[in-house]
Write a structure and sequence with these properties.
InterPro entries: Asp_carbamoyltransf_reg_N, Asp_carbamoylTrfase_reg, Asp_carbamoyltrfase_reg_C, Asp_carbatrfase_reg_C_sf, Asp_carbatrfase_reg_N_sf. By secondary structure, the chain is mainly beta. The chain is built from 3 helices and 9 strands, in the order E-H-E-E-H-E-E-E-H-E-E-E.
Length: about 140
């Protein structure tokens, strides 16, 4: 059986959809980290069946907007002295910038490459976002 030790101080990104752990690991550039990190994939979970987990043996800044957009069911556990001191539940962000690109070929962001891609949450239930410039739709779920 695989054993991953607990961490004394750091962050545990938990309840990640199976397979998304690698994308988060890459986005956070954890492969270049000087601190110990662990990406645990396809772990059994009573709550969701299977999940990925990332353990980081230090406190780092996280992009909550990106993480919430990618998987709003992620939980961030802050660890101090081997115990969880804070638990942050993510949700779909109300607005996102430069995470996705508009698919509308007529959108100004498709023509002008230096414009920030901005989207606002149109439906949290459906995970639907709309482009702030052309109202083009993007589904995150």
């Amino acid at each position: 059986m695989l054993t991953i030790n607990s961490i004394n101080k750091g962050i545990v990104i938990d309840h990640i959809k199976p397979g998304l752990g690698e994308k988060i690991f890459s986005h956070l550039k954890l492969n270049k980290s000087k601190t110990p990190v662990a990406l645990i994939m396809n772990v059994a979970s009573n709550a969701v069946g299977r999940k990925d987990i990332i353990k980081i043996d230090e406190h780092i800044d996280l992009d909550y907007e990106f993480l919430g957009f990618l998987d709003p069911n992620i939980t961030i556990n802050i660890i101090e002295d081997g115990a969880i001191t804070d638990k942050i539940a993510l949700e779909l962000p109300n607005k996102i910038e430069n995470i996705i690109k508009c698919n509308n070929p007529r959108c100004i962001t498709s023509i002008e490459t230096n414009i920030t891609n901005k989207f606002y949450l149109a439906s949290g239930k459906k995970g639907t976002y709309r482009c702030a410039y052309c109202d083009g739709e993007y589904s995150s779920l």
